[in-house]
Structure formats: C-alpha cells, structure tokens
C-alpha cells in the first residue's frame, strides 16, 4: 500500500484522526500517552490505507522530516478552531520542498466550532495554497469525535493511493531506516518506507554506513508476513547478524555494490516559500556551514557553496556518506535559528568540476561529462538509471566518445598501423567500430577488407567456438595464411578464431576470481567443459594473444588483459 504521511501543528488532532480512520492508536510510547502529544513516528493502517503519523511540535521537526520521506500523499491536518499555526506553515513548506505529489487537507474538530468559522478557514486555506502556486484538490471537514467526513476522507485517500501505486522505478532497492527494535526469538527488526526495487525474503543487504552484511530473514507488512516488500510501501525486515547497536534510524540498507556512496553532491535548490516571502533582496542561504542536511531519514551537518556564483545550484558537502542518486530530494535547515530554509533535487552525486565552472543539469550526458569512459555498472550508479553501452561494457558522454574517436582516427592517420594491444580497453572496442578500419593479427589499419577474410574456413572456425576441427584435414596453405593474418591461432594442429579467444574473457575472469593465484589446465577444462585435446592448444593460444601468461603450471593475466 502507498504510504500517507500526516503533517500539521501540534495538538491539531493528527493522531486522533488516524485512530478514527484506522482503529489503531499511532501513539505507541508511554511518554506520548502521558503527555498527550506525539513525539515519535507512529504507524497505522487499514486494509487499503497505510499511515505514518508525525509529531507536530517544533522540537520534533527532525522526526517529522524523516516521516515524510518517500511518500506521495500527505494529509495536512488543521484544527478548525485554531486555524493556521507556525508548524502548519513549516510543514507545508517541507511537503512542497519534498515535492509530495498530493496534499489532502483535513479540517479537524469541526464539532467544536461554527459553520461560519469553517467557511472562513476554508477560504483562508484555499488562499494559502493559491499564493504558493498549489492547487487544493481536496479539503474535507472532519470530526474524529462524531465521525463526520471520515468516509469521504477514506474515499479520497483510497482513490489517490490507486493513482500513485503504479509509480515505477529503475533503481535498486534502498531502505532508509526509521525504526529499529528487537523481538524475542526473532532478533533485530528494522522498518522504513522502501524505495527502488522490491526486497525479497532471503536477500542479502549491507548497511551503507558500515558495509556490515545482513540477510533478510523475514518480511512483514502491516502485521502480516510476506515474501516480498514492494517499492514505496511500509515494511518491517527481520535481519540477521546485526544488533540494535549496529543499525539506527538514518542508516540505509542496500544491495552490495549497487549504489554510489557519496559525501558531496551538486543540486538544484529552492528557497522555502515562507522564508522567501519574508526575505529581503539577499538570499537566506550563505556559502559555508551552519546547515543540517536531511535526506531520507538521515541527518548530516553540511556546508554549501553556490555554483558559478549563482543562486539556483549548489554543492553540498557532509560527513558520513549516503547512497544517493540524481533526483533524490533533500532539505536544508539552518542550525542558527532552526528553520527550514531550502530544499532541492540532486543533480550529480560525484561532481568533479570546480564550483566556479560546474554547470550540472542532471541528465546522463552532464553527469558523465567529466568522468571519461566508465564501466556500465559504475555509470548506472552515477546516473541512477540503466545506461546503454557505447561499446561492449563501456559508456561515456557524447563529447568523450567524439574526442576518443577523433584521437583514434588521428593515430591511424599518423601511424597507418596501430597495435590495439597498446590501447585502452574501450579504445580497442571503439576502433573496431570505425568505418574503413580493419584489424588483422591485432593491428588496425585504414583500408579495404582482405578477401582472405571471406574464405569459408573463417566462418567454420568462428562457428566451432572452442571445439574446432583438426587443421591436418584442411588446406594447409589457407590455414597458414589465416594464421599470418591474425585470424587464427594454432597449436598442435588445433586452431581457434581470434574472436573466440577474446570472447573467453568472462570465463577467464571467473577462473581468476575462483583462483587468484592462477588457474591450472584442469581448472580450464572443467570451466569450459572440454577435453585435454583442445585445452592444451587453447591455453597456448591464449598465451599467444597475451590474454594469459604461463607461470609454472598456472595461468595468470597477460599483457593484453
């Protein structure tokens, strides 16, 4: 179920309204019941609605921010008697800065005031929304005491959850933890609103802050066991190997090596509406420290610096890395007067350009611009979405691709012949795609194709893979010429196409991962499922193309690896 967060001033009836809607009291702490005030996040649900109830008191605003993380719907609660109060304003500022899609207003305690007062408050609320450029689609007058308006409110909220439930995501799973506790006989349990892809029972995760590993022993959603936690829903994970001392609110659970952890990002920034309305001609933000950064359920002391001497983009630095992607929303609170001053959207999680020259836009080309060529997996983490390779396994910004292409063409023009073993991995792949460039025996040249390359033997060896025919049965002159051209490599009358040899890179990588000190002939036979007849010539030919090198009885990476 899509999560709905409450918002609004203290004592305006948020918790009472949630209890009236769900039958569950979200105030679970004894201290909350004694004081009659929400001081921590509370949770409640029905069969179709899921709520996070946040504190309304200014002293617990940090907790409120953690509660509205990752939600698409907010329920802004306003007391019909008291009307708009300071935290009504600040909470609405926060919802706007977090770009919550749908804000429903509930006027509470309608039974304690008059119809004229409710009409006046309705008009005031519509005006407050309009001046902010917001459309107030749903304002519902309610009373938790009499039940007035509750059915209408349930209907509206249910319709909105259906509207946003189809939201898709391309990022890996990420859970910002908002609660940690233990259950006797089960162990540590963490809860949060899941972002990214689903989490399944049995999944292995790491705490981003410490890189400590854990496994999902069990999943619950709204008290019921489940084998899967879906994106943008509340979930409780029973995890292994971690105690409540190892993980806290603000920690993040992710899959290992799936996110880029960063302590700096470039971002667009927007001033909070109420702060902007009160500000003079100078910006309420200043380069330097004195800010608290809120992302997800995490808080960090932060420093800021505007980019290009402007006012709409900035570089934010903080201590204590977080797994972030472009598009993540954040808040900045000023520590001096403890108010929410700004928020924004992350544009680049690994900025390289100086702040005086950086001009991030958040698109793929802008993000990759200063990183040269990157493995696709690394680029995907920086972009926050799948990227298409330019050449197998590698990606770069268009300017980088163009510059590399021009450099390779210039090299071919100057040298006429280029030994591709001397090139970087992406250059070897890119030069093979250039028009009117042929590569024979590891040498790239500009010119027409060699007719020899069209001989049927070429296709025979290419299609045979590593189970090739004995060359003693074939035309020896053609075989000799193909070997001389670098198309085939031969040992003991067993030959392999050069493409086949280079196509074994993934298998070799796996062998070296399993045997870091080098793999033996038997290891090679077992991995590829071949006999010694082909294994010995194959290993020798791999040595010839310098993918491997023999050291005693094992093979290690060669100079072309």
Word description of this protein:
This protein is 29% helix and 29% strand. The protein has 17 helices and 30 strands. Helix 16 crosses helix 17 (532-544). It has five domains: 3-164, P-loop containing nucleotide triphosphate hydrolases (Rossmann fold, 3-Layer(aba) Sandwich); 174-254, Beta Barrel (Elongation Factor Tu (Ef-tu), domain 3); 261-383, Translation factors (Elongation Factor Tu (Ef-tu), domain 3); 400-446, no CATH class; 451-557, Winged helix-like DNA-binding domain superfamily/Winged helix DNA-binding domain (Arc Repressor Mutant, subunit A), CATH 1.10.10.10. The strands form eight sheets. It has a six-stranded mixed beta sheet with strand order 2-3-1-4-5-6. A six-stranded antiparallel barrel has the order 7-8-14-11-10-15. A six-stranded antiparallel β-barrel has the order 16-19-18-17-20-21. With 561 residues, it is an alpha+beta fold.
Brief summary:
The protein is an alpha+beta fold and 561 residues long.
Number of helices: 17
- Provide the number of structural domains: 5
Strand order of the largest sheet: 2-3-1-4-5-6
Q: For the report, how would you describe the main beta sheet?
A: 6 strands, mixed
Do you know the CATH topology of the largest domain?
Rossmann fold
CATH class of the largest domain, anyone?
Alpha Beta
Low-confidence stretches: none
Q: What is the average per-residue confidence, as pLDDT, rounded to a whole number?
A: 90
| Rounded radius of gyration (Å) | 31 Å
Intertermini distance = 49 Å
